[in-house]
Structure formats: structure tokens, C-alpha cells
Amino acid sequence: MSLSIRNDSLSLQAQHRYAEHVSDANTLVARLASGTRIGAAADDPAGQALAARMASGLKGMSEAMRNINDATSMLQVAEGAMSNVTDSLQRLRELAVASGNGSYGDGDRDTLQREANQILQQITQVGRETEFNGQAVFAQETTSIGGDGQVRNVLDGLRTGWLGASEDLVRQYYGIEGKGAKLTVNLLDSDGAGGVLASVSGNRTGMALNIDMADFGSAATADGGKAPQYSDRVIAHEMVHAVMLSSTSFDFDGADWFAEGTAELIQGADERLAGDIAAAGGAANVVAGFRDAYKYSGGYAASRYLHDQLKALGVDGGIKGVMQYMSGHMEADLSTALNVVSKGRYADVGAFEADFEANGAHYIATRMNLQNADTGAIGGLDADAGPVRSARDVVQDAAMTSRDKPLRNFDVTMPENGGHTNTRRVQVQAGADAADLIELQFSAMNASALGLADLDMGNTAVAVSRIDEAIDFVDRQRVAAGASSNRLDMASANAGTMSVNLAAARDRIQDVDYASTTVKLTRAQILQQAASAILTQANGAPRAVLALLKT
Predict the structure, then answer these.
(1) CATH 3.40.50 describes domain 149-413
(2) pLDDT tens digits for 409-428?
């Protein structure tokens, strides 16, 4: 072993160890004082990055929970407003039902209409003035849930009376009913303006009621409002075809005049016959063309003639007997029915046609009044000495039984009108990540958007139908708001749970463990003291060299 005073390696080593223990103790003291294990990135680079991300997530979730609370408050405001709108709609419905009271006069209905107008203004005001944080809650556009106005008027007319009243007429005067066939209302086919208003196509099990919107009357009134051939009269005509197609062989031995003439007879065609007589130059010319050119007006006159002839033969209900026979004998054609019902007076279709050709013009001139208010419909004044059945009321308004089942003996499918309102969309940041979004939707709440801008309390069935549609729409919006509120509650609960778990995870990474750190500090302090004692001894080693020099 060599002794040196220039390089005191023992002292240097002791100093190094002492410095390490001092540094360790200082680090441990700093951790205990701050409560965090990671005071700087150097302490734990990976842990520091992970803890920073967790801290960011915690702050984001804390702010998201405030967002959720604000959104919940907005939904509560919207729900309160929609509740008020529902109450207003219920009052409107009461007024519409009251308007159907037959003892009320026009003045009474005007009073009801004035109150209804005030209610509609209030609904619009609620939709416009309901605000949250200075912003309108609901969409402000007026696009209607009713969709296209013309289409809506037609569909409402079909649902609230035209179909049902026509079915009743056919059953009452012809004694036949549908057999549960599927009837699809079709509004898409058109032959252009000035063409056919409506038609029926298909077969016994499935048929279509085709309505040409280019020609069809569509005023928002019970009868369609297109005089004199009101829309309800057109539908009555077509329902004769539909019922006969469903309940008979529809075999008329080529006598198209019978199909069209009886369809005209159900609602009367005096004005049509008078017009064709004037255009043709006389009743004789109409009679001569009743098989083809004048199968509507001439067929109508032939059906009236047949009706009277059968009544004269003692057939109960006249032409009703033919209809009922064909319905009860589905294989029978028109010739067979005429022969049986007339007890051989008309052996077949040809026999009747010959009779009408010989006597039809005289019958029109002497037995048909084409100038009075009665349309000539079966059961009316001219045809059966019954009450006057005028163009306006020949098809009586029917009480709506069900929007979804306007006919008892057909399975009716109505087209969708495609109505919708505009929607205000509000996105809520409901989590720490950019993709954690919840979208709230607020539809428009005003009279126009609810399809009630032109609500006519005088037309009870349509008014009730439209109000029910509006109530259903508002109810669905309230359901959507409630569902969104529940979703926000779940998002809030989830954010709270995640926040607690994330905070615990961050603490495990970043916070100091006082128990183990205190133990480590005690150890570091003991080692520091030991290193200090050893350093003292190491610093005394060079004195031994000096002692050798003295000797």
C-alpha cells in the first residue's frame, strides 16, 4: 500500500457518497413537502407525460359536466314551453269539437274561430320568445308538418269523410260492400291538366285509387270546394267502382255504360247530362252514343231508366237488386243478373240497351229534371222522390272514425305527405375528447310549423284531424326532449365516475407515498451521517504521511 498526499482518493470517494446521500435526502424532503412524486420531468418522464394527460382529461370532464348541466337546463325550458303548447292545442281541440255542435249558428262558430286565432297566436309567441341564455330555443322557420298544402287537403278530405261517406252511400243505395281488399291511394300518376280526375285500377284483392292532382279539387273544405263537381262527388263515383270490383265479377258484357253510369248515379250527373245534350245537339244523340262517346252522361241516363223500370217491375230498391244479385253470385255477369232480377223482362244486356235506345230520349225529356237543384242521384228528389240531394250536399259529411281506417271494408293505405319542420341543432360537449358530443334537436313551435296556420273551425272533422296531428307531433318532441335529458343525466353520471377513477389513477402515478418516502428519507439521513463520519476519517489519512516525515 502506497501513501500519497497529492491524491486523497479515500476522501474523494467519501465526498462523492456523501453528496449522493445529501441529494437523495433533498429530493425526498422536496417530495414530502410538495406531496408529489414527480416534481420535474426528470423524476419520471413517462409518468409525468401520463399524469399531464390525465390532468387535462380531468379538467375537460369538469367543464363537460358544467356543459351538461347547462344543456339540461335548456331542455327543461323547452319542455316547459312545449307543455304550454300542448295545453293550448288541447283547448283548440275542445273548440273544434264544440264547432261540430249542430245547434250552433254561424255567429257561434265565428266566436270559436276568433278564440282559436288568439290561441294560435299565443302558440307562435311561445315558440318565438322561449329563450335560453339570450338565444331562441326552438327553430324559427315556418315549414309545416302538413307538407304540401294541396296534397294535405286531399288526404284530409279522404280521411275525414270522402271515403267513408261514399262507402255508406254505396251500401245504402246499392246494398253492396267491399270484401276487405287492399286499397292504395295513389297521388303520383297524372295525364296532365284537363284530363281524368280520378280512377280505380287493379283487381279484386288489391286495387289503387288514382287521384290526378293536376285536376283534382283541393280546397280545405269538406267537399273539396270545386263546384259543381266537388271532390267528394268524384270519390263517390270511384268508390262505386272499387266496391263493385271487390264484391262482384265486374263482368258487364262490355257494357261500360253500366260501370260508369251507376257510378254517376250514386251522386247524380244532371249537370253533366245537360252539358252533353247541349254539345251533342239533343238528347237523342247522347242516347245513341251512350255505349261509348257518352258512356258517362248517357250511361247515367240509362242507369236512371233501368232503376225506374226495375222499380216498376216491383224490384225492391230498383237497380239495387241487380247490384245485390251480382254481389251474392260472384260468378254472375250483368246479363244473368238482369234476366233474374227483371224476371225475364230483360233477357240480357242487349235487350235492355235496345229498350233504352228506343225510349231513352223520351225518358230524359219527360222524366228527368235537369234544371233544379237536385243532382238526380239515386235516393234523391228526382230519382226516388226523396230529399233534395244538391251538388254541395249529395255526399254528406261523415264523422271521422279513424285517421288510420277511413273505410270499414277496405284495407286503406295512404301516401305520406312528407311534411316536416326545420330543426335547430345544439351540440353539447359532454366529455373530455373532441368526439364526445351529444346533439339536441329543437323543432319549430309555431302555428305554421304545426300545420295550423289556416285552421278552419267550421270544418270540424279536418280541424280535429289537424289538431290531433299537431298534438302528436308536440308529444313526440317532448318525448325526444325527455330522452335527451335522460341521456344527459347518464352522461353526467358517467363523467363523474370517470373523473373519480381518473383522479385516483393520476394520484397513484403522481402523488408521493408518505410511508415509503419517509422510510427512504430516514435511510438517506442515516447514510448521510455515516458518510460524514467516514469523510472525517478519510480527511485524516494525509496526516499519517506527515508523521512519517517527522520521524
Answers:
(1) no
(2) 999 999 988 788 889 999 99
